Amino acid sequence: MSNATNTIESVLVENRVFPPSDAARNGARIAGMEAYEALCKEAETDFEGFWSRQAKEKLNWTKPFTRVLDESNVPFYRWFDDGELNASANCLDRHIGTPVENKTAIVFEADDGQVSSITYKDLLVRVSQFANALKSQGIGKGDRVIIYMPMTIEGVVAMQACARIGATHSVVFGGFSAKALNERIIDAGAVAVITANFQLRGGKELPLKSIVDDGIALGGCESIKTVLVYERTLSPWNRVEGRDRTFAEVLEGQNIHCPPTAVGAEHPLFILYTSGSTGKPKGVQHSTGGYMLWARMTMEWTFDIRPEDVFWCTADIGWITGHTYVAYGPLAAGATQVVFEGVPTFPHAGRFWQMIEKHKVSIFYTAPTAIRSLIKAADSDEKVHPKNWDLSSLRILGSVGEPINPEAWMWYHRNVGGERCPIVDTFWQTETGGHVITPLPGATPLVPGSCTLPLPGIMAAIVDETGKDLPNGAGGMLVIKRPWPSMIRNIWGDPERFKKSYFPEEMGGNVYLAGDGAVRSADRGYFRITGRIDDVLNISGHRLGTMEIESALVAKTDLVAEAAVVGRPDDLTGEAICAFVVLKRSRPTGDEAKQIAAQLRDWVAKEIGPIAKPKDIRFGENLPKTRSGKIMRRLLRSIAKGEAITQDVSTLENPAILDQLSQTN
Ligand code: 6R9
């Protein structure tokens, strides 16, 4: 039986409860459930007043807002929309003249273990100079800039500098392919790309700049006028004259002051592409005001961030978690944070624990997939078990990206948290901008495997297809019934898709549909996320659309006739990609099948990125289809899991195909 099935069963019988310790509760911003409930009540009774107070208290406005929420064009909600502010000023300038200015903003640990750090004051200078450099290249307010950078201080500087001049950034994860980059450049209509010559991961030097060149060469990128290159390593790279400039060249002589450009609260701070249920990734557009409010508030609510904390979120800036909890939230909160360039298993699988000890990390935020792989490593090699390091600096642990199975939760709790640290299992999405359902460390009694309760002001519910509330214990669709400040504002350039994807007509057109299934516990009403209900897969916490991978496979036109992709449970990565492929030639078997499968995996890595490589590839002469020609994915899901087919297959055009697809090559 697979681990995921185990997980579901063990969650169903999960009855361990971990109330907050006195240490976690004492001095917490939200101390105890009474305090949490009082905030929820306040948000319910005076919804706009609640958000107005938060936004005034937590953000610096250059022009105060007079309107809180504009609902005149649902679902295009507008928050604080006549107010003006700057995101970078709210992360940096805000601290100047306070004790935070000389505090360390970022401790950077490189792949090879070298450490450097920068104070808030110096970070402001770095960001300002780089912002001036961007201006010198003709980049300004409203322009879109692609960032394709490794995890470095420079990556954060690039994002902050764009925000400072009102340019909208779109960060593309360094593991995405030239093709993926090309599509994003075109969709965003970007004027510049900020990249590095190489990135260092796991002791290897991996190219970035040459992939940018390849991406632009694929065509349609005439909007790109400038490519800025951070020379991360000494290795040579190919310069395109007239277009490429190094960081050193554009920074030369730049003024250390750059007044932040005030923008309207609804000005798009960034676009971040994520997978949806069709082949084309969605450009999730976020605001400046509401988003920044959330970044700061959730640092305070969920992580209860304190001046002496050392915060470490292991996510890459290419994902939403790296936006809200690396590039913006910790800085807005005036925290010291660790930024890590490398991978958890290099030079050994104790790297995370070693770094927690070395930097005295007090809040550690990572993904279940990392925890599971480190459990496996510690089980097979005592030397990398967390017990070998002093983790007593830890105060709070966090989890994000996918459901955390109770076994992994308990291991994290015991072996990393020393049974002392609350674990905040934070549920949220690229679209939500920040946490929406999560425990609060000083208040919420924890139940392993549950993200517990919505934050104050988040009207989360579980409903059926018509939008009707379901009772606790009944599984259904997760929705949020009222807007919230950091919600997605639009899909870049595609308002129709925005409406269709997130605000279904059947539910009245004003309820946010998360795309996840969920169930609330009978006793506490705690939420447990059961996984996506659309065609989105979650591989190691990374979102990928089945259609996206199918399109990539069939784009190999010399070989592939048809392909269907489904997910199956996987012990380590949560879900694994399983592709069923019909070739244009006869069905291969044995070594030949293995060879073609390897070829297709490489092809998908080139089309999308290595994270999208199917784990299983099965060949058939056909795919199971209904008489009307629809691929029956639920049958494919059963086959992928290795389950016996018990469903009704009478509507199937070609039932014999099931046996063929069930055979592993
Ligand atoms: C932040 C992030 C979003 C999808 C989401 C859900 C899954 C995230 C989770 C979780 C269970 C949690 N997800 N956090 N599932 N428990 N604590 O991951 O954003 O990349 O957009 O993915 O991830 O399925 O819908 P994103």
Automatic annotation (TrEMBL):
It comes from the Bacteria. Catalyzes the conversion of acetate into acetyl-CoA (AcCoA), an essential intermediate at the junction of anabolic and catabolic pathways. AcsA undergoes a two-step reaction. In the first half reaction, AcsA combines acetate with ATP to form acetyl-adenylate (AcAMP) intermediate. In the second half reaction, it can then transfer the acetyl group from AcAMP to the sulfhydryl group of CoA, forming the product AcCoA. Keywords: Acetylation, ATP-binding, Ligase, Magnesium, Metal-binding, Nucleotide-binding. Pfam families: ACAS_N (PF16177), AMP-binding (PF00501), AMP-binding_C (PF13193). It catalyses: acetate + ATP + CoA = acetyl-CoA + AMP + diphosphate. The keyword Phosphoprotein does not apply. Residues 36-91 form the Acetyl-coenzyme A synthetase N-terminal domain. This is Acetyl-coenzyme A synthetase. It comes from Variovorax dokdonensis.
